[in-house]
Amino acid sequence: MGTPQDSSSAPPGNPSHRLANSGRGHGAMRLLFVCTGNVCRSPFAERRAVALLEASGHAWEVLSAGTGALPGRPCPREAVAAARLLGVDLSAHRSRELTPAMVAWADRIYYMSGEHLDVLERFFPGVADGKLASLAGFSPGPVRPVEVPDPFRCEPWAYRSCYTFMDACLRRLVRMLEGEVGRDPVGPGP
């Protein structure tokens, strides 16, 4: 885990994506996507969420990080290629390590697996309370998977499958967020 940073309104670490402001009085809703290495799942979620949220007319800030990330690593070429098929450019992304400032900064934190939930609850007790939800919990199907599978070091089809699943979850999440602006439910719980 990274060292603490200023938890003011400025995004911690590398700048997040700031989207159009609708005049929301108390600032932008801040979304944080968390996976392990911040080179496959969470960067895709960050960039795809930005694309889906741009048309919402509300204020959003979006960031991603990894619980075990080595800062500055690029996404694998398989991840970049698979993301490109869904209109997401991961070529410039560099990994970020999850920090206490990021957790404090976020209004909502979406994790990919139970391992990430464990890290968030263990290392950030109290700070992450009420902010956490599994991205897989937003699956539009009747059966909701427990986690988003990790395609790291797998065949290209695994990245495509993972990102297609994540895209469906993100579309549902964004529809819910757009309907909840001004209210405070987090969504499906841990």
What structural class do helix, strand and pairing data support?
alpha/beta
Which CATH class applies here? Alpha Beta
The total strand number stands at: 5
Average pLDDT confidence is 85
Total discrete domains: 1
Measured distance between first and last alpha carbons: 21 Å
Q: Please state the CA-atom Rg, rounded to the nearest Å.
A: 15 Å
Reported CATH architecture:
3-Layer(aba) Sandwich
Oligomer designation? single chain
| Biggest beta sheet attributes | 5 strands, mixed
Broad shape: globular
Low-confidence stretches: 2-10, 20-26, 182-186
**Order of strands, widest sheet:** 1-3-2-4-5
Helix content: 25-40%
Quote the beta fraction: 5-15%
Total of helices: 5
What is the CATH T-level topology? Rossmann fold
Corresponding CATH superfamily: Response regulator
Order of helices and strands: EEHEHHEHEH
Keyword list:
single chain, 190 residues, alpha/beta, Rossmann fold, 5-stranded mixed sheet, 5 helices, disordered N terminus
